[in-house]
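User: I'm putting together a small comparison set for a docking exercise, and I want a reference complex before I start. The sequence is below, and the ligand is zinc ion. Could you produce the 3D structure with the ligand included, as structure tokens?
Assistant: Of course. I'll restate your input first, then give the structure tokens for the complex.
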Amino acid sequence: MSILASKRKPILASQHCQCLYVQVQPNIAWSALQRMNKTKRIAMERVHILFRLAKEAIHKEPRLAQRYVEIARRIAMRTRLRLPVEYRRLICRHCKSFIYPGVNCRVRIQQRREPHMVITCLNCGKHMRIPLRKKEERKR
Ligand SMILES: [Zn+2]
């Protein structure tokens, strides 16, 4: 906490993300950040910055936003960092492009069978299916 708080304040996912499927507890993000080694912490910081820039640019310059996310994904891969779930939702699983609700993807909730969320990428037209029940609930 002390090292992190003193010098540069790391940017947390919760400060930027206003999309409907982002619910990160700031405390959890903090502890996760503290547990990381220095390389990963810097990488995480940059991933946050790039995603924030991508979200700002998507409306005016979609290609620039795509580039930002591509770089963020490469940083994460190179440093073997797992992207937080809220960022993974913003990348199409199939064509790896940046998808933002209301811009180039469609988000629908399905109650039938298992309640789930379907994110349709409007670039490649494929779907991502996300179950909405938690693991413990699903077992019952
Ligand atoms: Zn796609």
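Helices lie at 2-6, 13-16, 26-35, 38-57, 62-78, 85-88, 135-139. Residues 38-57 form the longest helix (20 residues).
User: Thanks, that's exactly what I needed.
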